[in-house]
């Protein structure tokens, strides 16, 4: 595969370590040789050298972090379907040599593109600054100077350079392409590169023969874009940023999942475009059949079609979402990393959460330690502590784990209390291990044991649900002791016990779990000492010691948050890896009726359709592996729900990817934060309610725009068709139609600043194309009625097309302003943006026909007698709107 990599590097590019890269993956170099070729060492780069390399090779980012240039942004907006349709119509007008229409369409396209790129630029900038707040870091080992001791510290991922020595632990993103120097039980998830969903194990290979495998299967290489699911490692960076395999595979691809937002906005856009494409032939046909007009009506038909296009939709959407996101960040510290996720959040009707650290505080305290008979036995706690201690000690990156922390703290207290009774816990002096004391603080460091020595670790993973520490005991020469702790069922599966004992221990666990305790079983096995590493295959034939029970406090605001979500019509489901009994108790305490609890094994036995059925009616899923969680989420989505997932662990990542919108607390591990669309300021769950409400408000504003824009456009088309047939001339000149349309569009931007009715955010808000249809029909007809009344007035008071055009133009703009004020959903005071917009519309409507610009457009002054009559028509129109709204004749919408 060496050739594959070298082939990917363009010839003649002087990238830093091409020679090394090819060598690294192919030639079976030893770690030391790799380091030498990278001009690096196992102790890490010197800071100055790292700085030089950063300047030379650039930031370690796949895409440049600078916002795109203006020209690119403008070009990008041309790709949107509305703009494309407008441009198409412009070309048709040009071909028909209707130059004025073509020019006005060009102006329209330009205005909408400029507005749109300005809106997107602002939105991108604020989203980027929000994202920076939750950016991921890499653990790097560097030295201040050549002779200084190496220092392990966190740096922004972008500052990594080739030759850097990095540490990897569970929950880390692999920050660049790296070559492993040392690895311990490392498994990584490389789905982003290979599409393979199961994690693969990585290690420093024993035999060079293994290096002949395909690139991504090579055991000693890890790649940017993958993440660590279990185990730890130390590695040297071989390629960064655009040189990584991830970058070459994803060049130009956004690679995001499509959520509810993309589906609904795309759906609406295409419905409208289809409708619009139908209008032009209809206008042509009506004029041809009833008036015998020919192709000379083409520019008019085109203008009517353009008038129907809500080309400001993308601008409104971006502005409304960006405003919502900025407000959330300011008010409750919730960070929306991807704007459409805010809409999806408002649409969520099922929120799945994990238990520990989400519903509970993840501040555990040991509640009991029992032998297999249910009697208190300090030896159980002791061995659990030995396991915790060495799991932490032997990891390259000590990963904080509340469970292990609690066990060590309890063991220390127990040791102090029984200092003379038990000799299993040495009191002092403690052997302070730098890695541990750095992470844990003094309390844990004191609990170090002097009588056992860690040899190896088989790290925890959420599928196996257990962790093994291998230790050597001073009193047993030539023997290694495997200390295993983990989920009761999974440890029992690996113990040499009879069915009866197994059943008894399971019952004991059941009883304790019903008290809400988290349970771990502890087991031992002696093996002849060896130097070969221990593997999962060694975890069998164990002797059961007993179980440790840990208590976890409920999160302070969890019950309030769940109640608030229920009021908003969001069903909460718990997906946990824990014991069903523990999960049931926690849910009951939170007032969440657990009902029947479904376990992971049961999920395995169901096909997708049956699972979808079951999932809809189940509130708690226990003993779930990461894959189970993801399957449940997918099943719920298939059942028509919009699903959010809130989790904080590596084991939640697959489910987060499967959900419409993924949430995590700010202190979650890197992969989880990377997978999340929405990052919560802290573990206070009540902010989710605020976020959901903000999402629904943004969606509400977009829906208001759509309802009003589309219904008045529909009204206009009906009037145009009617007038076209009734009049001996065109009811409006193409340029007039387009100018009027431009005024409508720009004024409607104000809806992004409205605050919709609170009642609107009481249920999940989804934009559905067909939900608007009744509303649009009713108000479209009322609008057309006002136009026809105006035609009658004009017929009485005026003659000639200029006066007719002017009269209708004035009426149209003022009715539009009325509609905007009367049909907005909010009951509160009119925001100033909307006051300005409607005021300006009315002013333009009244004054433009009198101005020189009006004259250029073919408009002119109107007889004074027209105005009082117009007032009567407007009053009647306003009254009709109010009646329709009140009678809920036209309910529907978002
Ligand atoms: N450090 C550990 N050592 C041993 N066993 C553990 C450890 N952490 C978790 N387990 C076991 O693995 C099971 C699943 O843990 P995991 O962290 O995967 O659960 P989860 O899905 O995150 O659940 P939760 O909803 O409680 O967060 C736990 O119930 C426990 O029995
Ligand atoms: Mg968890």
UniProtKB/TrEMBL annotation:
Principal location listed in the UniProt entry: membrane
Q: How does it sit in the membrane?
A: Multi-pass membrane protein
- Keywords on this record? ATP-binding, Cell inner membrane, Cell membrane, Magnesium, Membrane, Nucleotide-binding, Phosphoprotein, Translocase, Transmembrane, Transmembrane helix
Localization per record: Cell inner membrane
Q: Start and end of every Cation-transporting P-type ATPase N-terminal domain?
A: 25-98
What residues form the membrane-spanning segments? 82-115, 272-290, 302-322, 775-797, 865-884
* EC number(s) per entry: 7.2.2.14
Q: According to its UniProt entry, what is the function of this protein?
A: Mediates magnesium influx to the cytosol.
Q: What family is this?
A: Belongs to the cation transport ATPase (P-type) (TC 3.A.3) family. Type IIIB subfamily.
* UniProt-recorded name of the protein: Magnesium-transporting ATPase, P-type 1
């Amino acid at each position: 595969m060496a050739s594959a990599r070298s082939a990917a590097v363009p010839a003649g590019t002087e990238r830093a370590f091409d020679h090394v890269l090819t060598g690294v993956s192919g030639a079976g170099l030893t770690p030391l040789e790799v380091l030498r070729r990278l001009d690096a060492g196992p102790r890490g780069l010197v800071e100055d050298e790292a700085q030089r390399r950063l300047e030379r090779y650039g930031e370690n980012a796949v895409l440049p972090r600078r916002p795109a240039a203006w020209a690119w942004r403008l070009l990008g907006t041309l790709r949107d379907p509305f703009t494309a349709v407008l441009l198409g119509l412009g070309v048709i007008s040009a071909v028909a040599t209707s130059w004025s229409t073509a020019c006005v369409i060009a102006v329209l396209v330009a205005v909408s593109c400029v507005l749109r790129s300005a809106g997107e630029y602002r939105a991108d900038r604020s989203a980027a600054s929000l994202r920076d707040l939750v950016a991921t870091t890499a653990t790097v080992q560097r030295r201040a100077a050549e002779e200084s001791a190496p220092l392990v510290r966190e740096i922004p991922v972008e500052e990594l350079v080739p030759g850097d020595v990095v540490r990897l632990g569970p929950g880390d993103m692999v920050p660049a392409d790296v070559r492993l120097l040392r690895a311990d039980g490392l498994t990584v998830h490389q789905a982003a590169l290979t599409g393979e969903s199961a994690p693969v194990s990585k290690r420093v290979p024993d035999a060079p023969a293994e290096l002949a495998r395909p690139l991504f299967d090579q055991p000693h290489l890890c790649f940017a874009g993958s993440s660590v699911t279990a185990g730890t490692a130390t590695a040297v960076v071989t390629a960064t940023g655009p040189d990584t395999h991830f970058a070459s595979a994803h060049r130009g691809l956004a690679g995001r999942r499509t959520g509810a937002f993309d589906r609904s906005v795309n759906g609406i856009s295409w419905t409208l475009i289809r409708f619009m494409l139908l209008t032009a032939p209809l206008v042509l046909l009506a004029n041809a059949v009833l008036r015998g007009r020919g192709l000379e009506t083409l520019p008019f038909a085109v203008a009517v079609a353009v008038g129907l296009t809500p080309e400001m939709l993308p601008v409104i959407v971006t502005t409304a979402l960006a405003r919502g996101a900025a407000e959330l960040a300011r008010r409750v510290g919730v960070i929306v990393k991807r704007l459409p996720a805010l809409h999806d959040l408002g649409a969520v009707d099922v929120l799945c959460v994990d238990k520990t650290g989400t519903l509970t505080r993840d501040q555990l305290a040991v509640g009991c330690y029992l032998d297999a008979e249910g009697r208190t036995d300090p030896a159980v706690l002791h061995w659990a502590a030995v396991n915790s201690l060495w799991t932490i000690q032997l990891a390259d990156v000590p990963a904080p784990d509340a469970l292990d922390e609690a066990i060590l703290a309890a063991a220390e207290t127990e040791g102090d209390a029984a200092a003379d009774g038990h000799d299993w816990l040495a009191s002092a002096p403690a052997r302070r291990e730098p890695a541990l004391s750095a992470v844990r603080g003094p309390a844990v460091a004191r609990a170090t044991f002097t009588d056992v020595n860690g040899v190896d670790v088989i790290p925890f993973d959420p599928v196996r649900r257990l962790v093994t520490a291998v230790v050597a005991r001073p009193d047993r020469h030539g023997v290694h002791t495997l200390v295993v702790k983990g989920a009761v069922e999974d440890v029992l599966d690996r113990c040499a016990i009879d069915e009866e004992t197994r059943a008894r221990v399971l019952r004991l666990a059941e009883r304790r779990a019903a008290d809400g305790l988290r349970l771990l079983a502890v087991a031992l096995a002696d093996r002849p000492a060896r130097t070969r590493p221990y593997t999962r295959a060694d975890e069998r034939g164990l002797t059961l010691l007993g179980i440790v029970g840990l208590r976890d406090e409920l999160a302070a605001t969890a019950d309030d948050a769940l109640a608030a979500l229920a009021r908003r019509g969001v069903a909460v489901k718990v997906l946990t890896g824990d014991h069903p009994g523990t999960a049931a108790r926690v849910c009951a305490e939170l007032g969440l009726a657990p009902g029947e609890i479904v376990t992971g094994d049961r999920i395995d036995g169901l096909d997708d359709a049956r699972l979808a059925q079951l999932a809809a009616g189940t509130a708690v899923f226990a003993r779930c592996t990461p894959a189970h969680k993801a399957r449940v989420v997918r099943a719920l989505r298939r059942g028509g729900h919009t699903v959010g997932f809130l989790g904080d662990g590596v084991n939640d990542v697959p489910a987060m990817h499967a959900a419409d919108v993924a949430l995590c607390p700010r202190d979650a591990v890197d992969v989880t934060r990377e997978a999340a669309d929405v990052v919560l300021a802290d573990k206070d769950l009540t902010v989710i309610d605020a976020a959901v409400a903000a999402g629904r408000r943004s969606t509400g504003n977009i829906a208001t725009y759509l309802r009003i824009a589309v219904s008045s456009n529909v009204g206009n088309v009906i009037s145009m068709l009617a007038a076209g047939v009734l009049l001996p001339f065109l009811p409006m000149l193409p340029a007039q139609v387009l100018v009027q349309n431009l005024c409508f569009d720009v004024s409607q931007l104000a809806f992004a600043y409205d605050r919709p009715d609170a009642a609107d955010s009481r249920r999940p808000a989804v934009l559905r194309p067909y939900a608007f249809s009744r509303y649009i029909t009713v108000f479209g007809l009322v609008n057309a009625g006002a136009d026809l009344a105006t035609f009658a007035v004009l017929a009485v008071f005026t003659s000639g097309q200029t006066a007719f055009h002017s009269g209708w133009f004035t009426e149209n703009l003022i009715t539009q302003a009325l509609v905007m004020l009367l049909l907005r959903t909010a009951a509160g005071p009119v925001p100033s943006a909307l006051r300005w917009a409607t005021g300006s519309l009315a002013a333009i409507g009244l004054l433009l026909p009198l101005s020189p610009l009006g004259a250029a457009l073919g408009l002119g002054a109107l007889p004074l007698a027209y105005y009082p009559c117009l007032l009567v028509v407007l009053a009647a129109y306003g009254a009709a709107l109010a009646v329709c709204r009140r009678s809920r004749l036209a309910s529907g919408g978002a």
